[in-house]
Write a sequence for this structure.
């Protein structure tokens, strides 16, 4: 085989690998999760602390060995509330997504909502 | 000549069918062709065994947010917190055969409320977690309910 045709073979191999990786990354899906008007009963006496916030956490596996697990849903909500110094969240939505790579997978949780301070 | 080269272990053999040359595994001086290939195939086998062992010994974990609720029953903001509560219930299967387990979410919430002598739960999250162990094709599907037990607010 000539050096030129060997280089062409490497190029085709790299391209094939790239396409496989791309398709592997595409082989994922997002699943809608829970929604709620608020995380705790807030009545009408509350103040919004900023706009819509997002918190997410991902878990990864390599050859099915867990490298990191996603954080629990309650932890994601607590982190958002604590980060803004609030008491609760309103307009809460959540979802999870799973993506499969060539040698592993990623599973992510995402929570969105507005952090509020509840009046006493 | 062919026999001499093979015995010398030069890593190159001539095809019996003609003059086409075939690349074979590199060999140490004094090794036969078969011995050289045996070393490579043993290394490849070991690598396959390691990869399979790692894969089969692993566990796939997935988490999904199944529910978020401000309270388990309609409440005003006038309630007293008793403390955090958490319940976990799992259903398992082996080779696709269910082994039993798991409780309904409603039963889990009722048990948590009764356990603390509370009226309801606030800040409720329900989460589904799946575990799959490729070896021995064992899996588990768990529901986790978390919240704060409260009194009053009705």
């Amino acid at each position: 085989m000539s050096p030129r045709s060997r280089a062409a073979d490497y190029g085709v191999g790299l391209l094939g690998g790239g396409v496989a990786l791309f398709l592997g990354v595409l082989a994922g899906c997002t699943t809608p999760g829970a929604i709620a008007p608020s995380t705790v009963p807030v009545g009408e006496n509350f103040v919004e602390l900023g706009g819509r916030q997002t918190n997410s956490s991902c878990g990864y596996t390599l050859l099915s060995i867990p490298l990191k697990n996603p954080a629990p849903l309650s932890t994601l909500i607590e982190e958002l509330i604590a980060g803004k110094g609030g008491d609760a969240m309103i307009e809460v939505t959540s979802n999870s997504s799973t993506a499969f790579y060539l040698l592993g997978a990623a599973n992510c949780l995402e929570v969105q909502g507005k952090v509020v301070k509840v009046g006493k | 000549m062919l026999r001499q080269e093979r015995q010398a272990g030069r890593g190159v053999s001539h095809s019996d069918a003609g003059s086409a040359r075939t690349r074979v595994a590199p060999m140490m001086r004094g090794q036969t062709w078969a011995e050289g290939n045996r070393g490579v195939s043993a290394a490849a086998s070991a690598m396959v065994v390691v990869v399979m062992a790692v894969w089969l010994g692993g566990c796939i974990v997935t988490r999904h947010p199944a529910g978020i609720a401000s309270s388990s029953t309609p409440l005003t903001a006038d309630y007293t917190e008793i403390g955090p509560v958490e319940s976990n219930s799992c259903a398992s299967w082996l080779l696709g055969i269910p082994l039993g387990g798991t409780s309904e979410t409603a039963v889990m919430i009722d048990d948590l409320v009764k356990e603390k002598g509370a009226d309801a739960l606030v800040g409720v999250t329900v989460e589904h977690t799946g575990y799959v162990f490729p070896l021995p094709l064992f899996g588990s599907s768990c529901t986790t309910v978390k919240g704060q037990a409260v009194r009053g607010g009705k």
